[in-house]
Design brief:
By secondary structure, the protein is mainly beta. Helices cover 15% and strands 42% of the residues. It has one domain. A hairpin with a 7-residue loop joins strand 8 and strand 9.
């Protein structure tokens, strides 16, 4: 009887759900609503975005070097998550449309969708959808 209780106790401990929630690895813009705000941290910058149209990826965005002082707001189109130009494929850039993914860069159209205004950011370290999370959650997700 004692052995059964011991085995049951050990099994119960093995199957206790992890209460520490894992940081999300990706964000789909189409799952957000108009007016929703979120922040993204790359190796070099912080980005603050507000969703204008989740179906087209149209956002307003601001950039900061230190996460405290942000520049002017501009229209930005999130094209998706990318690893940049693929070697050996004739310069093809693979993009996961409408996504932000930790470990991948963001491809943005700044002001419009013209090819000359495309910008590929450094790789994303973390992100947070506001007001549910704050910058602390971005920093803890990227460590």
């Amino acid at each position: 009887m004692l052995m059964r209780c011991l085995v049951a106790g050990v099994c119960a401990l093995c199957f206790v759900p992890d209460t520490k929630a894992a940081a999300p690895e990706s964000l789909t813009i189409q799952n957000l609503t108009r007016g929703q705000q979120f922040e993204v941290q790359t190796d070099k910058r912080y980005f603050q975005f507000t969703v204008i149209d989740p179906t087209t990826g149209e956002l307003t965005g601001r950039i900061s070097e230190d996460g405290q002082e942000f520049g002017e707001t501009a229209t930005v189109y999130l094209l998706g998550a990318t690893l940049g130009t693929q070697p050996g494929d004739g310069g093809i850039t693979l993009v996961q449309m409408n996504e932000i993914k930790v470990g991948m860069s963001m491809e943005l159209g700044v002001f419009d969708l013209a090819h000359k205004n495309r910008w590929i950011t450094p790789r994303v370290r973390g992100f947070a959808v506001l007001p549910n999370f704050n910058r602390v959650s971005i920093l803890s997700a990227s460590d």
